[in-house]
Amino acid sequence: MNRTFSATPYAKRVEQLSSRIFGEVARPNLKDLCVLDEHEDFKEEIKRLRELRGKGKPKKGEGKRSKK
C-alpha cells in the first residue's frame, strides 16, 4: 500500500502506524532523526560529566555489597 497523498502530520503518523501494524517498512523522517541524535548527544554528555565527577558505575567486584 503506497499512499503518497498524506499531507498533514496526523495523517503521516497514522500511515506510519498502519504500516507498522501491517508489516510494511516505514521510512524514518529526517526531522525525527535529528531529535534522536540530539538526545543521544545529551545523554552522552551527561554520562561524561558524571564520570568526571566520579559518579560512574563501579567496576565488577567493587560494588556496594563487596565492601562488607
UniProtKB/TrEMBL annotation:
GO CC entries: mitochondrion; ribonucleoprotein complex; ribosome
Subcellular location(s) per record: Mitochondrion
Coiled-coil blocks: none
Superkingdom of this protein's organism: Eukaryota
Entry keywords, A to Z: Mitochondrion, Ribonucleoprotein, Ribosomal protein
Keyword hit for Ribonucleoprotein: yes
Protein family per UniProt: Belongs to the mitochondrion-specific ribosomal protein mS33 family.
Protein name: Small ribosomal subunit protein mS33
